[in-house]
Design goal:
Length: 80
């Protein structure tokens, strides 16, 4: 199983178990069910966490050209 395939399989299994039982499966159970090592599952879970973090951070970034409220063009230029 390639890393991308494993990440997708782990994502699907975790989402299914959360929807069905409300409990996230552990590494051992994921490894056993998917037929891979716990180390491989840990790497897949780390990749999922990194994706989630990147998605969260990108949502916090202002779109290009947006001026934050309270900041106006020329305010940091001293008056003469």
């Amino acid at each position: 199983m390639t890393n991308g395939t494993l990440v997708d399989a782990v994502r699907t299994r975790v989402a299914d178990d959360l929807a069905r039982t409300g409990v996230r499966p552990g590494r051992r159970r994921l490894a056993r069910d998917l037929g891979v090592t716990e180390h491989a599952v840990r790497q897949a879970l780390d990749a999922l966490a990194a994706e989630q973090k990147a998605r969260h951070q990108s949502a916090d970034v202002l779109p290009t050209g947006t001026i934050p409220s309270g900041a106006h063009a020329g305010e940091d230029t001293p008056a003469r």
